[in-house]
Structure formats: structure tokens, C-alpha cells
Write a structure and sequence with these properties.
heterodimer, A: mainly beta, seven-stranded mixed sheet, four-stranded antiparallel sheet, 11 strands, B: 112 residues, mainly beta, six-stranded mixed sheet, 12 strands
């Protein structure tokens, strides 16, 4: 059972380039989310989805787009990368959205550097 | 606004010694509290969680945490640390049905 799979693991982008971070889960989880992790700031929620076709913004959504066309996949798109988006990105999923009911499973992260 | 504070950025502990990691939260309602561990180069793994009931919660890997409403704290403890416990630890609070708010994390170094 693969769990939550993120690709790529590492990426270097030039300022202004676009790219998509992939996230896939094979646990049939309804809820998926993207976080970024920066030193001294913990994890901050970028976007989340409570099911296919439904997405919403987290606390730091600017510069990122998401879509959820299937239950399994939740890609994160950077339209025009900026150095401020240099970070480690984590995708997470849980059976239901409510954290009081379920555990969030995290991928291994994507380390993104924007130069 | 909801917030989670982990006062200690870095803790060094000897193998076999006890460990306590502090977590304070600011939240208006009854909180749902979590501790996650992140080993180097890995994602986050849930250690334990508190929803209600017994304020002393047992988790995996020999960890426990105690919820103290009067102090707005949810400190993580382990009686005897192993070298494999070297990692970064995050406290988090569920601030509504869908969102987790994380603390900045505490890095634990274990010395032989």
C-alpha cells in the first residue's frame, strides 16, 4: 500500500517558471491538503479539498492553484514561481476532513528551490 | 486567532534520559490536539491525539501527552529516549473540521 505519493522529491525552478507538484493517494481518502514547511514556521495550509471537484483556500494560497478531478489526485500548480516559494511542500490525506475523526497521512515531501 | 506555540526550538537529551516537549495553544473552543513526528527526509507521522475524555493520552513509540486545560498546554513526554527518537516534533490543533494549525516545531537531538 503506497499511501500518499509525492513527485518530484526535489525540484529547482527559475523565477517565473511554472510547474506542477503531484500528489496521489491510494487509500480512497476524501480529504486532501497541501502544506508548505518553512524553518521556524511549522506547516502552513495552502489549499485543501474535501472531495472530487471541491477545493478551498488555506492560510497561504497566493501563487498556487489546485484542482481535484479525481479522488486519488490533488496536484498543486505554481503559475509563476517566485523565490518566496522556496520551501518543502507536503501533501496529506485523511478519510474524512474532520481532524477530530481521522488521522492525516503525509507524503514524504517535495523540496522546491526557486532561483 | 488560533495559535500553537512550541517554546523550545531545539532540545538535546542523552539516550536513556526522559524527554518533555512543551506545547501551548490559544483557541476559544475545546481543542483537538495532536503531536506529529518528522524524521529526517520523511513526512509527518502521527504520534498521538486528544479529542476528549482522559487527559493523559498514550501514543506510539512509548510517547504520552497530557492535556491541561487550565494551562492551555499539551506537553509530550517519553520516560526513556532512544537514539531513534532524534527528529522534529510538531504540536497541532484542529481549528475546525478541516484545518490543522501547526506549531513551529521542536528539534530533538539525542546524544550517546
Amino acid at each position: 500500500n503506497a499511501g500518499v505519493t509525492q513527485t518530484p522529491k526535489f525540484q529547482v525552478l527559475k523565477t517565473g517558471q511554472s510547474m506542477t507538484l503531484q500528489c496521489a493517494q491510494d487509500m480512497n481518502h476524501e480529504y486532501m491538503s497541501w502544506y508548505r514547511q518553512d524553518p521556524g514556521m511549522g506547516l502552513r495550509l495552502i489549499h485543501y479539498s474535501v472531495g472530487a471537484g471541491i477545493t478551498d483556500q488555506g492560510e497561504v494560497p497566493n501563487g498556487y492553484n489546485v484542482s481535484r478531478s479525481t479522488t486519488e489526485d490533488f496536484p498543486l500548480r505554481l503559475l509563476s514561481a517566485a523565490p518566496s516559494q522556496t520551501s518543502v511542500y507536503f501533501c496529506a490525506s485523511s478519510l474524512q476532513g474532520r481532524p477530530l475523526n481521522t488521522e492525516a497521512f503525509f507524503g514524504q515531501g517535495t523540496r522546491l528551490t526557486v532561483v | 486567532a488560533q495559535s500553537v506555540t512550541q517554546p523550545d526550538i531545539h532540545i538535546t537529551v542523552s539516550e536513556g534520559a526522559s524527554l518533555e516537549l512543551r506545547c501551548n495553544y490559544s483557541y476559544g473552543a475545546t481543542p483537538y490536539l495532536f503531536w506529529y513526528v518528522q524524521s529526517p527526509g520523511q513526512g509527518l507521522q502521527l504520534l498521538l491525539k486528544y479529542f476528549s475524555g482522559d487527559t493523559l493520552v498514550q501514543g506510539i513509540k512509548g510517547f504520552e501527552a497530557e492535556f491541561k486545560r487550565s494551562q492551555s498546554s499539551f506537553n509530550l513526554r517519553k520516560p526513556s529516549v532512544h537514539w531513534s527518537d532524534a527528529a522534529e516534533y510538531f504540536c497541532a490543533v484542529g481549528i475546525n473540521d478541516y484545518k490543522l494549525s501547526f506549531g513551529a516545531g521542536t528539534t530533538v537531538t539525542v546524544r550517546a
